[in-house]
């Protein structure tokens, strides 16, 4: 990198300094993500960034990526639609980002899933197929080139003439990604009885009875499905061929004897792990604190044994949402749902990392994954030429994961730019003090080897 300059203090505001606990960036004033406070600094965590949906898309926020310092990596501004379930997937043989966006009514979504590539360009949408919209709670892209998700609809309760409410039938749909064709459907009302629910039917005319509230789908080792239903506090194993329920884990009709500490309720995010255990996020664990739970199942003897649980040091209790992600190195990354925290634990339960959103911000799921972003737009630049600050240049590039440093270019015109100085990247937005005052100025991003990644549009220096 050419020249030498003094690097100004990072413009990254602290949680106490940020108005409304939101970041303010000179080069990207349109991006104002919530400030994340670190309560336990990351040590020995798994590689990757953190993916979440602050406020689940309410207001100005869209899907967001941050690093272990809480620094912004990428944010997509709010679209006016709610968003949820932001994750890294494999699509057409390559890594991609996916999230749900649409409208939410009473915790049930109707929308579709957006897919973008490493340049953050939209490359596809997954729609419900067969009518209606896709629900927000789950997307699983299979190795067979299909997508599994939920679609909800109200139906008249069977055998109950004159009842003034409708039953919320949560359907699992599977569509072929290449054609969008619906290839398989499963309906909760055909296989889960209403009396399995822990929710009381509504008494007001026109309301829906969300008796099951399915929230996760997992392709099991034999190709069948594990399906989590919050409102029955049950995980169902569903035969992928016949649609029949093979067994119930938990709830009123559990086929398993639940060992000491194995019982759960109002759970989310049930997953089969490589070692055969089942993990889940237990929202309302006894005695009144949520946890990530690891269970060992004996599917012959039909017993469930608690292997381990992971509890937040402050004893958080979630009223909804949440996830428990087992990472490739064995760590467990936990999003605490309605509680504004996310954490990472070592396999033995040691807390390795913990962070919190500002009050009032929550995310349906918080996930960690490796990601390489190469945006196809140009870096952004802003200039402060006030007498008190001299000439300060602010540089950022929303979504780029490879920027290691910034060069500042200046001159009398856009065609005569020359290097004026450089500095290492410092957070999402890097501030650089320049001793000269050119007429036109630009910044260029470089990687760790000094190779050019991208150059901003030249701007005229004010004053």
Our estimate of the beta-strand percent is 35-45%
Structural class, please? mainly beta
What's the end-to-end separation, in Å? 28 Å
Radius of gyration computed on alpha carbons = 25 Å
Let me know the largest β-sheet: 5 strands, antiparallel
- Total number of β-strand segments? 36
Mean pLDDT: 92
Key features?
463 residues; mainly beta; 43% strand
Task: Describe the protein.
Strand 29 and strand 30 form a beta hairpin. This protein has a five-stranded antiparallel β-sheet with strand order 2-27-26-25-24, with no helix packed on it. Strands 10, 11, 12, 13 and 14 form a five-stranded mixed β-sheet that branches. 1% of the residues lie in helices and 43% in strands. It contains one helix and 36 strands. By secondary structure, the chain is mainly beta. Residues 1-19 have low confidence and may be disordered.
How do the helices and strands line up, and which of them pair or pack?
Elements: E1 6-7, E2 37-40, E3 49-52, E4 64-66, E5 72-75, E6 82-91, E7 94-105, E8 108-116, E9 122-126, E10 139-141, E11 146-155, E12 166-176, E13 182-187, H1 188-191, E14 208-209, E15 214-219, E16 225-229, E17 234-238, E18 245-249, E19 257-258, E20 268-272, E21 278-282, E22 291-298, E23 303-310, E24 323-326, E25 332-335, E26 341-345, E27 351-356, E28 367-369, E29 380-384, E30 391-396, E31 405-411, E32 418-424, E33 429-434, E34 440-446, E35 452-455, E36 459-460
Parallel strand pairs: 12-14, 19-23
Antiparallel strand pairs: 1-33, 2-27, 3-4, 3-28, 4-5, 6-7, 7-8, 8-9, 10-11, 11-12, 12-13, 15-16, 16-17, 17-18, 20-21, 21-22, 22-23, 24-25, 25-26, 26-27, 29-30, 30-33, 31-32, 31-34, 34-35, 34-36
């Amino acid at each position: 990198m050419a020249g030498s300059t003094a690097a100004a203090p990072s413009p990254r505001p602290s949680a106490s300094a940020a108005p409304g606990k939101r970041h303010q960036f000179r080069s990207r004033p349109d991006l104002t993500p919530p400030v994340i406070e670190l309560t336990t600094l990351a040590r020995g965590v798994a590689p990757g960034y953190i993916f979440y949906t602050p406020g689940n898309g309410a207001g100005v926020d869209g899907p967001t990526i941050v690093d272990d310092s809480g620094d912004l990596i990428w944010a997509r501004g709010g679209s006016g639609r709610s968003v949820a379930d932001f994750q890294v997937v494999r699509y057409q043989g390559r890594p991609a980002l996916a999230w749900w966006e649409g409208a939410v009514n009473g915790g049930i979504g109707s929308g579709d899933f957006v897919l973008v590539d490493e340049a953050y360009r939209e490359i596809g949408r997954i729609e419900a197929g067969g009518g209606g919209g896709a629900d927000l709670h789950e997307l699983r892209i299979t190795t067979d080139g299909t997508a599994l998700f939920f679609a909800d609809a109200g139906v008249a309760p069977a055998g109950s003439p004159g009842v003034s409410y409708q039953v919320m039938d949560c359907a699992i749909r599977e569509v072929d990604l290449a054609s969008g064709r619906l290839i398989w459907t499963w309906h909760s009302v055909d296989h889960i009885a209403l009396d399995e629910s822990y929710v009381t039917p509504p008494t007001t005319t026109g309301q829906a009875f969300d008796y099951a509230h399915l929230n996760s789908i997992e392709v099991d080792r034999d190709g069948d499905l594990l399906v989590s239903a919050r409102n029955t506090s049950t995980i169902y194993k569903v035969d992928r061929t016949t649609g029949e329920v093979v067994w119930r884990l938990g709830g009123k009709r559990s086929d398993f004897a639940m060992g000491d500490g194995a019982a759960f309720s109002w759970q989310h995010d049930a997953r089969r792990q490589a070692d055969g255990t089942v993990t889940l996020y237990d929202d309302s664990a006894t005695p009144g604190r949520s946890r990530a739970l690891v269970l060992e199942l004996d599917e012959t003897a039909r017993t469930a044994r608690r292997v381990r649980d992971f509890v937040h040091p402050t004893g958080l209790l979630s009223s909804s949402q949440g996830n428990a992600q087992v990472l490739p190195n064995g760590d467990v990354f936990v999003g605490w749902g309605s509680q504004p925290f996310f954490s990472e634990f070592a396999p033995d339960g040691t807390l390795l990392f913990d962070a919190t959103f500002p009050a009032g911000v929550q995310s349906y799921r918080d996930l960690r994954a490796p990601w390489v972003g190469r945006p196809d737009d140009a870096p952004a630049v802003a200039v402060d030429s006030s007498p008190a600050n001299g000439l300060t240049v602010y540089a950022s590039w929303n979504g780029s994961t490879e920027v290691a440093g910034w060069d500042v270019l200046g001159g009398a015109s856009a065609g005569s730019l020359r290097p004026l100085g450089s500095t290492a990247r410092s957070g999402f937005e890097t501030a650089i003090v320049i001793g000269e005052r050119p007429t036109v100025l630009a910044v260029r991003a470089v990687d760790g080897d000094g190779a050019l990644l991208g150059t901003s549009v030249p701007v005229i220096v004010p004053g």
